Amino acid sequence: MNKKRITSIDVARCAGVSPSAVSRTYSAPGKVSQATRSRVLAAADALGYRPNALARALVNSGRHGSGIVAVVMGEFDNPFQPWLFNLLTQALQQHGLVPMLVSVTEQCDIRARLQQALSWQVEAAIISAGSLSRETTERCLELSLPMVLMGREDQRETVTAVLSDNRLAGELAADHLISLGLTRLAYIAGRQDGQASLERLAGFRRHLVSRGRPEPIVADNPDYAYHSGYRAMCRLLQRHPAVEGVFCACDALAFGALDALRLNGGPACTVVGCDDTPQAAWEGYRLTTVRQPVEQLVAQVIHHLQRVLSGEVQRGETVRIQPTLTVR
Fold this sequence. Notes:
The protein has helices spanning 8-15, 19-27, 34-47, 53-59, 80-94, 110-118, 134-141, 166-179, 195-210, 226-239, 251-263, 294-310, and strands spanning 68-73, 98-103, 124-128, 147-150, 160-164, 185-188, 217-219, 245-248, 270-275, 288-291, 318-321, 324-326. By secondary structure, the protein is of the alpha/beta class. The protein folds into three domains: 8-51, 434 Repressor (Amino-terminal Domain), CATH 1.10.260; 68-164 and 294-322, Response regulator (Rossmann fold, 3-Layer(aba) Sandwich); 166-291, Rossmann fold (3-Layer(aba) Sandwich).
């Protein structure tokens, strides 16, 4: 037997107030007395009443908006993505916003998924573009929706992007490997159209050449997943067995590379990752990696999202935050 749904009218009867007083308690608490508010909340708690925030947002959308923010992400087999999503959702909730995950893949109907999210009166979007193809990002940008890009720069004047300085990340990795006296170096890349991977390679290559070292061997990949790093390292061991050091476009690729070295009896080879995900500190890996300042990135995303929502920002901007090297 279905349990009767408790409504605001039930709460009003229990508290001995008008239905409008119940509504104001949740939508405009400053417009009711403390005594009325206390009676309403006590009655709601006793009855198990939960206000319908979405319905209230639809009624007030012209003034307040829904507060729902779509977080568009992909490649959750890369541990950086769930880590980032966790930090983003916490930050959004702390600012009174409601995160809605829109998980996209290359095989899905991207437009349909985005339209589905919009049907829930999404007010803005955070696009984790570093995990998406350029085409997917373009589809997101076609929406007439306030948004902030994360992890990919965009030339549109109206788009704000927040990202780590990926070229500097490559330079830091190169400098570390050079300091160890290594010369035969390689780069395990992420997806071929990934801006972060391409920029990290550019910084890595430029710094090596500027220090008189040979250009790195490049192992291409379709994504940023562990198994791609494993297979790429196996290919390097077969084709370039004398390789001494490897810089990987992300930690997940580096974990795969390290396990390939262990399980295939590879030569002594130093592996450097990029991201500094929590798993990088695990005893089984103790990975030296370039740390993305994720907390700063998230703080900047929330800051600029609020400015966009308020209508304060008319022109977009690109914010780059400097990474650091974590040696383990």
